[in-house]
Amino acid sequence: MSSKKIELDHKDMVHDSAIDYYGKRLATASSDSTVKIVNIGGASAPSQLLATLTGHYGPVWRVGWAHPKYGSILASCSYDGRVIVWKEGATGQWSQAHVFSNHKSSVNSIAWAPYELGLCLACGSSDGSISVMSMQPDGGWDTATIERAHPVGVTAVSWAPATALGSMVGSDQLVHKLVSGGFDCVVKVWEFVNGGWKVESALVSDMHAECVRDVSWAPVLGLAKSTIASASQDGKVVIWTKGKGGDKWEGKMMRDLEAPVWRVSWSLTGNILSVAAGEGAITLWKETSDGQWEQLWTKASGEPQEQATEEVIAAQ
C-alpha cells in the first residue's frame, strides 16, 4: 500500500481530515482554529493548499464534505460551540453559507446524512444534545433537537445507510436513523418517527468502561443485518449487529487495543474497518467467515501526523 506525505501548514494539532467525493481534495481541522483545503495531486505531484477557512474561535474538531449533488459544501464544528457550513463559489472562493450557534458548549462531532435524505447535518455537543439541521427549498435551515441525548455530553454521531435492510440501492423505502456515542459510555440508536427523533435502542453494556470516542454505521449494500462499530477511551472496539424486524442489537468486542481508540471508519463496501488508536497507530480489520476479526494492515506509531492522516484516507 503506497502512501504520500501532505504538507498541511497548520500551526497546531490536526484533529480530523476528510477527502471529497472525487478523491481530489482533502479538508483538515486543527487546534489553530482553521480548516484547510488541499489539492492532493497525483502520486508524484506535490499537494497544493487551496484555501484556509477562518471563522471558528477555538479548536476545530471535525470536518465533513456534503454530497456533490448539493454543490461544493463543507461543514466544520468546533470547541467554540459553532457549526459552520461552507460553500464554494464558482471562482474557488469559500464563504459561510450558514452558521449554527445554538449549542451551549463544544460541538464534538458532525455527520452529513445520506444524500437521499436531503442536505441534512447531525451535530453532537458536550451540552448533551444532538441537533439535526436540514436545508429547506428556499435555502433556509430547519433544526430538530434531541435534548439530553447523552446528558453528560455527546462525543460522536453517524448516520445509518438510507437503504433499508435487504433492499437494493435506489429503493423508495428510506431509513432515517442515527447512532450516537457519549461520555456516559453508552451507544444509542435514534429513529425519526412521527415528526420527531426517538431513541430506538440504548446499547448499554460493560464492554465500554470509559467514554465512547467514535461510532460508525456500516453500509448495508443488500445485507440482511445492520452493523455499527463503536470505539472507546478504554481501548476497546465493539461491533454491534442487528437483523431485521424486532431483533435486538448484539455487541461483540472486536479487539482491545490497550490504548485510547479515537476513530473508527468503514470502507465504502462496509467490509473493512479502519481504526485509529493511541499515538497515531492505524490498523485495518476484516471479519472472517467464522465471525472473527483479522488485522489486514497496520501503520505503527511515530510516523508524521500528516502521513498518518493520508494513509487512513488511502486505506479506506
UniProtKB/TrEMBL annotation:
One of its GO terms (molecular function) is structural molecule activity. Pfam families: WD40 (PF00400). Keywords: Protein transport, Repeat, Transport, WD repeat. GO terms for biological process: COPII-coated vesicle budding; protein import into nucleus. WD repeats lie at residues 53-87. One of its GO terms (cellular component) is COPII vesicle coat. The keyword tRNA processing does not apply. InterPro entries: Sec13/Seh1_fam, WD40/YVTN_repeat-like_dom_sf, WD40_repeat_dom_sf, WD40_rpt. It comes from the Eukaryota. Required for protein transport from the endoplasmic reticulum to the Golgi apparatus. Belongs to the WD repeat SEC13 family. PANTHER family: NUCLEAR PORE COMPLEX PROTEIN SEC13 / SEH1 FAMILY MEMBER, OS03G0831800 PROTEIN. This is Uncharacterized protein. It comes from Brachypodium distachyon.
